[in-house]
Write a structure and sequence with these properties.
single chain, alpha+beta, 5 helices
Length: about 130
């Protein structure tokens, strides 16, 4: 597993430890167990495809290792955000490593998922 994906997973695990009773995080854990994913990265990628949210890292400069975290909203996302790609930080102040940007992205992605009131029904239908 790539180092930056490990950092993503570590951040999710940290959030789970800090918030063990959080409904959104419980849904993510259940989904991960149900699908038998090895990583939270793959789990959240799959959840994102279901709810119309995709995390995208844009490389500003391959020579200088500069990365900007973005969220892509599909047409029918439950947050009713207009379709498109939106930066999560100032594009003029990119992260200087993939590990840092993926760790940041993990936290921000969870915060977005927490805003979906019917997340459980969307990703864990009966």
């Amino acid at each position: 597993m790539e180092t930056y994906i490990k950092k993503f997973d570590e951040k999710i695990k940290e959030l789970i430890e800090l918030n063990p009773n959080d409904d959104c995080l419980k849904v993510i854990i259940e989904f991960k167990d149900k699908k038998k994913y090895d990583s939270f990265y793959m789990t959240l990628d799959d959840i994102g495809s279901i709810v119309g949210l995709e995390f995208i890292i844009i490389e500003k400069s391959s020579k200088n290792n500069r990365y900007v975290p973005n969220i892509k909203f599909s047409h029918e996302n439950p947050l009713k955000q207009e379709n498109g790609i939106y930066p999560l930080t100032d594009v003029d102040v990119p992260f200087d490593s993939k590990s840092k940007v993926y760790k940041y992205m993990a936290k921000e992605y969870i915060y977005l998922l927490k805003r979906i009131p019917n997340l459980r029904e969307l990703v864990l239908p009966h």
